[in-house]
Amino acid sequence: QVQLVESGGGLVQAGGSLRLSCAASGSTSSINVMAWYRQRPGKERDLVATISRISRASTNYADSVKGRFTISRDDAKNTVYLQMNSLKPEDTAVYYCRVLGGTFTIWGQGTHVTVSS
Q1: Taking the alpha carbons of 16, 9, 62, 88 in that order, is the dihedral positive or negative?
Q2: Rounded to whole angstroms, how far apart are CA atoms 97 and 82?
Q3: What are the CA-CA distances from residue 73 to residues 21, 44, 45, 69 (Å)?
Q4: For every one of its 117 residues, what pLDDT tens digit does the chain have, with 9 covering 90 and above?
Protein backbone atom coordinates (compact mmCIF):
# COMPACT_ATOMS: atom_id res chain seq x y z
CA GLN A 1 0.00 0.00 0.00
CA VAL A 2 1.08 3.56 -0.74
CA GLN A 3 0.38 6.59 1.43
CA LEU A 4 0.61 10.21 0.27
CA VAL A 5 1.17 13.38 2.26
CA GLU A 6 0.77 16.71 0.50
CA SER A 7 2.04 20.09 1.58
CA GLY A 8 2.79 23.55 0.28
CA GLY A 9 -0.60 25.11 -0.34
CA GLY A 10 -1.58 28.54 0.88
CA LEU A 11 -2.58 32.06 -0.04
CA VAL A 12 -0.60 33.98 -2.63
CA GLN A 13 -1.13 37.11 -4.68
CA ALA A 14 -1.62 36.95 -8.42
CA GLY A 15 1.74 36.70 -10.15
CA GLY A 16 3.29 34.89 -7.23
CA SER A 17 4.63 31.38 -6.86
CA LEU A 18 4.04 28.31 -4.74
CA ARG A 19 5.57 24.86 -4.67
CA LEU A 20 3.47 21.87 -3.75
CA SER A 21 5.01 18.65 -2.49
CA CYS A 22 3.62 15.15 -2.30
CA ALA A 23 5.63 12.57 -0.38
CA ALA A 24 4.89 8.91 -0.95
CA SER A 25 5.60 6.12 1.48
CA GLY A 26 4.98 2.39 1.54
CA SER A 27 5.24 0.33 -1.64
CA THR A 28 6.67 3.19 -3.69
CA SER A 29 8.58 0.95 -6.08
CA SER A 30 5.26 -0.02 -7.64
CA ILE A 31 4.40 3.56 -8.66
CA ASN A 32 4.52 4.20 -12.41
CA VAL A 33 3.03 7.68 -12.75
CA MET A 34 2.74 10.61 -10.38
CA ALA A 35 0.30 13.41 -11.10
CA TRP A 36 -1.33 16.56 -9.85
CA TYR A 37 -5.01 17.33 -10.25
CA ARG A 38 -7.06 20.28 -9.09
CA GLN A 39 -10.66 20.96 -8.31
CA ARG A 40 -11.71 24.57 -8.66
CA PRO A 41 -14.80 25.83 -6.82
CA GLY A 42 -17.92 24.49 -8.45
CA LYS A 43 -15.93 22.52 -11.03
CA GLU A 44 -14.91 18.93 -11.60
CA ARG A 45 -11.48 17.65 -10.74
CA ASP A 46 -9.10 18.19 -13.66
CA LEU A 47 -5.67 16.93 -14.55
CA VAL A 48 -2.90 19.50 -14.12
CA ALA A 49 0.31 17.58 -14.82
CA THR A 50 1.80 14.12 -14.88
CA ILE A 51 5.28 12.70 -14.68
CA SER A 52 6.32 9.17 -15.44
CA ARG A 53 8.70 7.18 -13.25
CA ILE A 54 9.66 5.26 -16.35
CA SER A 55 9.94 6.56 -19.91
CA ARG A 56 12.71 8.97 -18.93
CA ALA A 57 10.40 10.99 -16.68
CA SER A 58 8.20 12.23 -19.48
CA THR A 59 5.81 14.99 -18.47
CA ASN A 60 2.42 16.17 -19.58
CA TYR A 61 0.57 19.41 -18.77
CA ALA A 62 -2.88 20.85 -19.10
CA ASP A 63 -2.94 23.67 -21.64
CA SER A 64 -4.01 26.13 -18.96
CA VAL A 65 -0.78 25.69 -16.99
CA LYS A 66 1.81 25.12 -19.72
CA GLY A 67 4.73 27.47 -19.36
CA ARG A 68 3.77 28.38 -15.79
CA PHE A 69 3.78 25.12 -13.85
CA THR A 70 6.53 22.52 -13.68
CA ILE A 71 6.18 19.00 -12.33
CA SER A 72 9.26 17.21 -11.09
CA ARG A 73 10.17 14.34 -8.84
CA ASP A 74 12.89 13.30 -6.43
CA ASP A 75 13.11 9.53 -6.41
CA ALA A 76 15.41 9.47 -3.42
CA LYS A 77 12.70 11.18 -1.41
CA ASN A 78 9.77 9.52 -3.21
CA THR A 79 8.37 12.99 -3.67
CA VAL A 80 6.69 14.76 -6.56
CA TYR A 81 6.62 18.54 -6.76
CA LEU A 82 4.52 21.09 -8.57
CA GLN A 83 6.22 24.43 -9.01
CA MET A 84 3.57 27.00 -9.80
CA ASN A 85 4.68 30.38 -11.15
CA SER A 86 2.76 33.38 -12.49
CA LEU A 87 -0.27 32.28 -10.53
CA LYS A 88 -3.68 33.60 -11.52
CA PRO A 89 -6.89 33.86 -9.52
CA GLU A 90 -8.33 31.09 -11.71
CA ASP A 91 -5.66 28.75 -10.34
CA THR A 92 -7.49 28.85 -7.01
CA ALA A 93 -8.38 25.24 -6.23
CA VAL A 94 -7.79 22.25 -4.06
CA TYR A 95 -4.78 20.46 -5.52
CA TYR A 96 -4.56 16.69 -5.26
CA CYS A 97 -1.63 14.40 -5.75
CA ARG A 98 -2.32 11.06 -7.39
CA VAL A 99 -0.07 8.05 -8.00
CA LEU A 100 -0.78 5.16 -10.30
CA GLY A 101 0.72 1.70 -10.26
CA GLY A 102 -0.01 -1.38 -12.28
CA THR A 103 -3.11 -2.29 -10.31
CA PHE A 104 -3.89 0.66 -8.10
CA THR A 105 -4.35 4.40 -7.85
CA ILE A 106 -4.02 6.45 -4.68
CA TRP A 107 -5.12 10.03 -4.03
CA GLY A 108 -3.69 12.49 -1.57
CA GLN A 109 -5.84 14.42 0.86
CA GLY A 110 -5.63 17.67 -1.08
CA THR A 111 -4.05 21.02 -0.34
CA HIS A 112 -5.74 24.39 -0.79
CA VAL A 113 -4.28 27.05 -3.05
CA THR A 114 -5.86 30.49 -3.07
CA VAL A 115 -4.67 33.18 -5.47
CA SER A 116 -5.87 36.68 -4.71
CA SER A 117 -6.21 39.36 -7.36
Answers
A1: negative
A2: 10
A3: 9, 26, 22, 13
A4: 899 999 999 999 999 999 999 999 998 888 999 999 999 999 999 999 999 987 677 999 999 999 999 999 998 999 999 999 999 999 999 999 999 998 899 999 999 999 999
The 10 Å CB-count burial string (b at 16+, else e) for 33-64 is: bbbbbbeeeeeebeebbbbbbeeeeeeebeee
- Number of Cβ within 10 Å of residue 97's Cβ equals 27
Query: Measured between alpha carbons, how far is residue 24 from residues 6, 7, 27 in Å?
Result: 9, 12, 9
User: What type of residue is 102?
Assistant: G
Distance CA 104, CA 117 (A): 39
What's the rounded Cα separation, in Å, for the pair 97 and 4?
8
